[in-house]
Records
---
Amino acid sequence: MELYKLTAQQIQKLLRSRQVSCLEVTKSVIARIEETEPNIHAYIATTFEQAMEQAIRVDEKILRGEELPPLAGIPVAIKDNICTKSIPTTCASKIINGFKPAYDATVIERLKKANMVIIGKTNMDEFAMGSSTENSAFGPTHNPWDLQRAPGGSSGGSAAVVASCEATLAIGSDTGGSIRQPASFCGVVGMKPTYGLISRYGLIAFASSLDQIGPLSKDVRDCALLLNVLAGYDPKDSTSINIDLPDYTKFLTTDIAGMKIGIPKEYFCEGLDPGVEKRIQESIAVFSGLGAECVDISLPHTKYAIAVYYILATSEASSNLARYDGVQYGYRAEEAENLLDMYRLTRSNGFGAEVKRRIMLGTYALSSGYYDAYYLQAQRVRTLIKNDFEEGFKKCDIILTPTSPTVAFKLGEKIDDPLKMYISDIFTISANLAGIPGISVPCGLSDGLPVGLQLLGPVFGEGKILQAAYSYEVGTDLCVCPIA
Ligand code: GLN
């Protein structure tokens, strides 16, 4: 049996019934990585030794008959902007190359407490800025469906490892679509939860009012299981919300009769690939067939989302990235003659082109004389976008859209044209601006490449979107693990 191909839930059953050991599962995934990684390049670092030690510990606990959490023993991959104690965390940037965090991010503590097996750190766009992983200082990741194509980004490595079965589960971060868009491009499930649901303590900040950590998985049940592990109040993150959380697997029922699904007309616009639109229209028909009621809605300020996002995200990034000055962490330019020169050279050589572009854009938007016209105005329009969703959710329970206007594009196709690259986030960004949850689930192929369906819910509506996604998944025949 090829254990690496299985979902977490399938592995869990085999472990419980002692048909396989956790060490066998881990070794199977490691062998898969060794076979596949030369083509995919989805990992920046692997942690096989620790993974095998952890697997042995889990096996010992199983043998002792200890009660274990549901995802105990499941191999999980971590986006490399999440701090892992004593394991290098690079953010795919030269500027913090060599940085070994002194502590684990809260989500890592939670994965460890759940007895999960951390298998490696995944590739990404530098500081999570990008939509293709081509902005990584370590070179791009290749889409497992077509090695000439991008896996999406910025969590492209995390989506690719799940799609190519180089990990059973993965975690990523999503500031403007970085979990959902790569999930869509790689044919896997990916969720950005409500802002504040999952602690960001130990997530290297890009744009703090937008960043969220979330799960990537082969199916919707695994997504709910991993969300159960990740979600929860953390006093170390001031944006973390202290509420009672449900067991998200309780929402995995197929009864969606009467559920109202809003279809926003602004998301079926120019630029939407006809092949993608066809799959989305078919999925709307599937939902109607399952008894849901699909209603037309309008989110009128959608057209401003990209402009608002690229002002706010870059402004926050320019402030967050000010700390990389060659003094405290990572890379320092050697050839400098004085302190100012050292700062300048370190930042000029240490950051890649896209990160520098964003720091400059953000610094400009925040500078005196421009602040009101750009930053403040963008904040106002952000409120209008948030209000659009509040109005929209008065008419429906969840909202259905494409995740991305296209299927995976070719590596090199957009990298020289930032605007083209930015437009690929058109359908995912608004959820971050509004702080609401969104999930991308595979909904078939166009030209042999996966298409993602996005379901958006109101604040703390994770249960509803999981329920709809699960019903859809059960009601259709989805493709995962393309090269397995
Ligand atoms: N692609 C978007 C950007 O480049 C979103 C990135 C993200 O969600 N981290 O900003």
Note: The chain has a mean pLDDT of 96.
---
Amino acid sequence: MSRAAELITFNEATSAEAFASRFGATDDATARLLSAAVGHVHELIKEFRPTPEQWRKVLDFLTEVGHASDERRQEWVLFSDLVGASALVEEINSRRPAGATPNTIRGPFFRADTPQRALGSSISLDDAGEPLLVEGHIEDLDGLPVTTAEIITWQANAEGYYENQQPDLQPEFNLRGLFRADQDGKFQYHTVRPAGYSVPGDGPVGRLFAQAGYPLHRPAHLHFVVRAPGFETITTHIYDADDPRLGEDALFGVRPELVQPFDRAMIDGKPTSCVSVRFVMVRARQGRSK
Ligand code: BEZ
Ligand code: FE
């Protein structure tokens, strides 16, 4: 059949098909996803029937999102996070056996160059905030300690800001640390209680969502990446059970097994909160990247 004979007349009923017929067969996953997404966009336009002016506003918003993104800020990732797409991709790709620690999104504030710290030391370099002791242990699904585990943690300060959001106010690498588990698969460090915070609301995505009354709040949490040879890497959060806004996480990251009490106790004569965390790792499975 000639190429002209394959052309489908474009009208409201055939628009998606007309587009798809021009899109060659490809194995490229991004191209296939985009092609399918266009079909959904056509459906959406038929359902909402925007005027050219209304559609232009949508395009202007998407343009602004692009302009707000650079190597330090990724507004598209924020968009994906806020609409639950990042959490859904994580949920589908890192489904784990019962009892294993679930993955949640990593977020933009992780630093791969986090320095190693001694077990039992403090990651609070300015001592600003209410003391918190974090005690953790890492085990496999059989309850055996994972003694080769490496733990990277990062968190917001008592005002709800990460060190890389306030380079002039917080010391470099404040509230970050890389630890190696001991011979029992355990680790311990001192820090301060993190506050909940709002995801960046000063860009086009934050502005649009805030205007629509959409919550931008994240309840107080600690971030962790736990890795060990032969195991799937865990990227997860631990949430403070006392945070009254646990149910409002803007990024859909709260799972019941990730919520822990930050109990208050007296340690060395000082009022200190303590949280106990347990990470359960699964052995690396074939065909999985993490
Ligand atoms: C975070 O938890 O650090 C975070 C994740 C996504 C967007 C903003 C912040
Ligand atoms: Fe965070």
Note: The chain has seven helices and eleven strands.
